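Record type: monomer structure entry
Structure origin: computed from sequence
Chain ID: A
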Amino acid sequence: MDKNHKTTAHSVYNLNYHIVLVTKYRHDVFVGEVEEFVKKRMGEICVQYGWEQLALETMPDHVHIFVSAPPKVAPLGVASTLKSILAVDVFTQFKGLKQKKFWGSGLWSKGTYYGSAGAVSSEIIKRYIEDQKTAG
């Protein structure tokens, strides 16, 4: 078994998801301290839930995460968990953000991008995410 495969008590898997979370109204909020907080917190959430963060990059109005999760966890569950925890944590840490940009609404857009990848394309997706800030 190669290094990309993981195990649970009853399965061997290599499930990797490229998920893109977009801010509501495409507001540019992931800059400076907010960007650093989101990157740190996202990594902590992945560890807490037993997911492996393979790559992560923020753009001002969206976040790319490439994550591996066990078969019992649907990609929707990963995105929903990240969105809900991060929204509470970001609005708690940066109290003025809700009043300035998200009055009466949440942090995230309802739309989410989901892509899946096995071992062959994992490196390509990882490189794509890591190169987001330097690309065009």
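Annotation 1: The helical segments are 32-49, 75-93, 95-101, 119-130.
Annotation 2: Residues 4 and 86 are 28 Å apart (CA to CA).
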